[in-house]
Every structure is written in C-alpha cells, then in structure tokens.
Write a structure and sequence with these properties.
The complex is a heterodimer of chains A (258) and B (293). Chain A is globular. Chain A has 258 residues and is mainly α. Chain A has helices at residues 7-31, 36-40, 43-76, 82-94, 97-108, 115-120, 129-153, 157-165, 170-181, 183-199, 202-207, 218-228, 230-255. The relative contact order of chain A is 0.14. Chain A has one domain (36-255): MetI-like (MetI-like fold). The two termini of chain A are 26 Å apart. Chain A contains 13 helices and no strands. In chain A, helix 1 packs across helix 13 (230-255) and helix 10 runs antiparallel to helix 13. The model of chain A has no long low-confidence stretch (mean pLDDT 91). Chain B has 293 residues and is of the alpha/beta class. Chain B folds into two domains: 57-136 and 252-293, Periplasmic binding protein-like II (D-Maltodextrin-Binding Protein, domain 2); 140-242, D-Maltodextrin-Binding Protein, domain 2, CATH 3.40.190.10. Chain B has eleven helices and ten strands. Chain B has helices at residues 2-19, 22-25, 68-81, 94-102, 119-123, 173-186, 195-201, 210-218, 229-234, 264-275, 277-285, and strands at 57-64, 85-92, 109-111, 133-138, 140-144, 165-168, 203-207, 224-228, 239-242, 251-257. Chain B has a five-stranded mixed beta sheet with strand order 2-1-3-10-4. A five-stranded mixed beta sheet of chain B has the order 7-6-8-5-9. In chain B, helix 3 runs antiparallel to helix 11. Classes of the chains: A mainly alpha (258), B alpha/beta (293). The interface between A and B is large, with 53 and 41 residues.
C-alpha cells in the first residue's frame, strides 16, 4: 500500500511543484533586503493595504448578505429560470476580469445604461471607492454562492422537516437549523470570496481607475510599482502573499474533519 | 467530494490573487518568438535566385501608446517594402515597455515618448551610447468628452471643484508632462499659485497609458484629460482646449534598435525607415512634428 509511486508520477509532479514554487521563492528572495521594512511602512504601501482590506471586507459583507439568501433559494426553491440564475451567478468565475470591468462601465459608468440615470440623480459610481467594492463583489460573490449552495444542499432534509413539525417557521428553520449546519461551508465561502476580492485587478483598473488612497488597491499598487520601482512591487507582492497564505491556512483548518 | 470541490475552488481563487497582475503586466506584449534562423539570415534577398522567397522574419517593436496609429501605418508600409517581414507591435506606456525590456523582453526596437524612459536603458547597456535618435515631437492638449458635461471652456475651468479629471500616472511620460504644464501655469498670476493643487485635487484616476485616458474621456466617464495633440487628432469627436505654447511641453520621442535585439539588422533598417522621408511623412500625417524643425 505504501510503496513509492515511481518516476512516472514523481517527475511530472516535480515539474508542477517547481512551476508554482520557484516563482514564489523568487518573489520572497528578491524582496528581501535591508530596506524591506522601509517599503512596508511607506505611506503608499500602507494606504494600498488599508484600502484593500477595507474594500474586500465590505465586498465579503455584501456577498454574504446577498449571496447566502440566493444560495438558499437556489437549493430549496423550484422556480422558472432557476437554472438560468444558477448559471448567471457562475459567469463571473469564468469571465476574464477585464471583461467584467468593461461590462461594469457599460452598465454603471457615468455614460452607462443605468449609470446615466444614477448620474441624473447626482450619483456617480466609476472612479470611486464604491466602484472598487462593486468590481470586487462582482467577481468574488459567486464563490460565496457556490460554497453556501454546497453547504445547504448537504443538509439532511429530514432535519428541516423535524423543525417544521415542531412549529418552526421558514426564518427559524433558516436561522437555527440551516445556518449553523452550513456554517463551515459559509466560512469556506467567506475566505474564498475574500481572497478573490483582495486579488481583484482587471475590473478595478477599468471601472474604478487608479488613485492612491481612493481606488489604488494592492494589486494596482503592485502593477504601478512594477513600472516605477520594482522594489515596492516586490514588497507589496510579498505582503499580499503573506495575507493569502494566512487565509489558506485558515481554510485548511476548516476543511479538516472534526 | 464536497471537500474536493471546496479545495479546488480555493485554488482557483488563490491562483487569481497571484495571477491578477500578470496578464496586465504585459498588456499588449505578446512578441512572437523570433524564428531562430532569422538572426543569421541575410536581410536582403539574394539577387541570384529571384524566384526564392525571403526567409520569414518577425520584427518586434515596443512603442509608446501615443504612437499606436502612426506606427501601425509605418509597420504596414515597412512590411510592404520588405517582403517576408512581419512587424509585431507592443503598444503601452513607455514606462511599462522600458520595464519589460529591463526584464528581458525580446524586443528589437524601442520607441519611447520621453528620454526619461530611454536613458536608463543606455546606463544598463541595453541601448548603445548615442544610439537613440529623436524622430518626432508632440505637444499636449486638453480633451473633453463630445458632450462636455462639465461645461469646461477654458484651462482655468480645470480648477473648478468637483470635476472628474482623468490623467496619466506621473510615471507615464504624458502624466509627467501634464504635471510640468500645471506647474508652469501656476507661476502665471492669471491662473494663481494654487492652480496645480486645485487641478490635481480633481483627478479621479491616474491611468497607465495615454490611450486609456482618451478612451475613458471619450466614453464620458471623465470630464477632461490631458493627452498628446496626436491622440486628440486620432479621436476627432473629442472636444479640445489648446495649451498656450509658452506653457506647453514639447515631448521628444527617441527611437533605437536594442543591443539585445533578436534581429539587429532588421531593427536598424526599421529605425532608418522611421527616420526616412517616407516614415516622417506618415508621422506628419498623424500630427507629429519633426524632431529637428
């Protein structure tokens, strides 16, 4: 059972491990230096980190508030067009972020189809921090819906039946039976959504632009930094890598059986 | 099964975090790998065998975003004059192209919108000393969306609070020039010492190249931007406000064959073509002024 897998398996595996591992090692290696913390503590790095954390947190909140009920409906209700909604929510997962950015501009841009109405009311979305949140929610919320849907679907229907027999209404079933039982899947969804929102680049630069402290999140600061001062791009990348690794570790903990 | 699905989803999400910057870091750079034979093949067709077709060669030209229209035309003319040659362009902000060249991108020719992004390449031995030559100059101009929603009529109007101005990042040549212009305008009492500060307070985005500014202003997403005169000519539905000559910046565009060019001979031929009367006629057609008027 525990015999060595043989070179047919080991060699291809090593190629992939190298492909993923070497760039990450190179990133950390190249960023190391006496001035590392000077860059970490620099104002532009700090403002990008702060903006990224604030916007991704709001995006996760929005995804949770809207995605959880949607996932619940998708699992528990039969309605015409359900398959279509199901498919629609998954589209951002496969959509290139630049396409998402253009689509958001066409819809909510100042001259966009709906943005023009909003503009008439004095509300402009593009090039604001709100635009960053919208872009992040667009691309990341589907991960929460997916995760929550899996969580809700895995619950034994008999448990809901039992609760209803005891006189629980729909909200009580959701609040006291479904939410706790799907808690772990929801947490997984939250972390995945968060990670995706933190990394959002393409839709943000098109829809929200690039302004330090307002719309310049970590990935944008890394992109601009690459062209101005590679050192700051490297340091920011390592910071983002560290945050992502923490999320990954958390997720691994969640996925471990009790 | 459930755990597998979740792990897979996470991997996708994480991969996106790290890949997020990657596609954009080389926005248009997809330089075709030059045919290895091309480096040794003669650039001229041997006259002894008139029926043979020349070995196919690919020339990779990295050019400032503001050269998109003009160089597109020059590329076509160059291909017509040199059968078998394909010219591939990567248009982006000069600062992005310079960085890519520094990171080893296999480019043959580099045409920058300023010397600030050319000179470091000389120091780094990626361009031979004295090899780069100015081939065009350009001026800057204020552009407004076709409908001019903010009703901007003069340069002074740019300082009105609440405008949404879209500029280039200061690392982009045009963004650097824009800030130089604002600084000199602020020295004129007509505009006031705080003119530059007020205008920059209206900036909602610092874009990564000049064409992004044109596109976003053209879409009506911004109230105004500052780009090259040639960009405004290429987008005729935009409204413009000219910047007086004594405050404007003359942008000098240098071009050079790169030291590590995969096709050094062809690169030199292309540079010579841009500087030739034919090349200069195309530049003029697109609104550029000659380097040595």
């Amino acid at each position: 059972m525990n015999q060595s897998p043989g070179w047919v398996f080991v060699l291809p595996s090593l190629v992939l491990i190298g492909l993923i591992g070497l760039p990450l090692i190179a990133l950390v290696w190249r960023s190391a230096g006496r001035d590392f913390f000077t860059y970490v503590l620099s104002e532009s790095a700090f403002s990008a980190l702060k903006l990224s954390l604030v916007t991704s947190t709001i995006s996760v909140g929005l995804a949770l508030l809207t995605g959880t009920p949607l996932a619940y409906i998708l699992v528990h209700s039969k309605f015409p067009g359900r398959t279509l909604v199901d498919l629609l929510v998954d589209v951002p997962v496969v959509l290139p972020p630049s396409v998402a950015g253009i689509a958001l501009l066409m819809a909510f841009g100042r001259a966009g189809i709906f943005g023009a109405w909003l503009n008439a009311l004095g509300i402009t979305i593009p090039f604001t921090t709100a635009a960053v949140v919208i872009a992040q929610t667009f691309v990341s919320a589907p991960f929460l819906v997916r995760s929550a849907r899996i969580g809700f679907a895995a619950i034994d229907p008999q448990q809901q039946e039992a609760a209803r027999m005891e006189g629980a209404n729909e909200w009580q079933v959701f609040r006291y039976i479904m939410l706790p039982l799907a808690g772990r899947a929801l947490l997984t969804g939250i972390i995945m959504t968060w990670t995706r929102a933190l990394g959002e680049f393409g839709a943000t630069i098109l829809f929200a632009g690039n302004l330090e402290g307002k719309t310049q999140t970590m990935p944008l600061a890394i992109y601009i930094g690459f062209e101005v001062d590679i050192k700051i791009a490297l340091v920011l990348s390592v910071m983002l890598l560290a945050v992502s690794l923490v999320f990954l570790a958390l997720l691994r903990r969640l996925e471990e059986p009790d | 099964m459930k755990r597998f699905t979740l792990s897979f989803g996470l991997m996708v999400a994480l991969a996106m975090v790290f890949s997020a910057c990657a596609p954009a870091a080389t926005p248009t750079a997809a330089p075709a790998t030059p045919v290895p034979a091309a480096t040794t093949a003669p650039t001229s067709v041997p006259t002894a065998t008139p029926t043979s077709t020349p070995a196919p060669q690919t020339l990779t030209v990295f050019a400032a975003a503001s050269l998109t229209g003009a160089f597109g035309d020059i590329g076509k003319a160059f291909e017509a004059a040199h059968p078998g040659v394909t010219v591939k362009f990567s248009f982006a902000g000069s600062q992005a192209l310079r960085t890519q060249i520094e990171q080893g991108a296999p480019a043959d020719v580099f045409a920058s919108a300023d010397h600030k992004n050319m000179d470091p390449l000389v120091t780094e031995n990626l361009v031979a000393t004295g090899a780069d030559q100015d081939f065009a100059t350009n001026l800057l101009i204020v552009i407004l969306p076709p409908k001019n929603p903010a009703n901007i009529q003069t340069l002074q109007d740019l300082a009105k609070p609440g405008l949404k101005l879209i500029f280039e990042d200061p690392s982009v040549p045009a963004g650097n020039y824009t800030r130089q212009i604002l600084t000199s305008l602020s020295k004129d009492p007509t505009y006031g010492a705080d003119f530059s500060t007020k205008v920059l307070a209206n900036v909602v985005s610092n874009e990564t190249d000049v064409k992004q500014v044109v596109a976003k202003v053209d879409q009506g997403e911004g109230d105004a931007g500052i780009v090259y005169v040639t960009d405004a000519l290429a987008a005729p539905d935009l409204k413009t406000i000219s910047i007086p000559a004594n405050y404007n910046v003359i942008a000098h565009y240098p071009i050079t064959a790169l030291e590590k060019a995969p096709n050094p001979d062809l690169a030199a031929t292309f540079v010579a073509y841009v500087l030739s009367a034919d090349g200069q006629a195309v530049m003029k057609k697109w609104g550029f002024s000659p380097a040595n008027p």
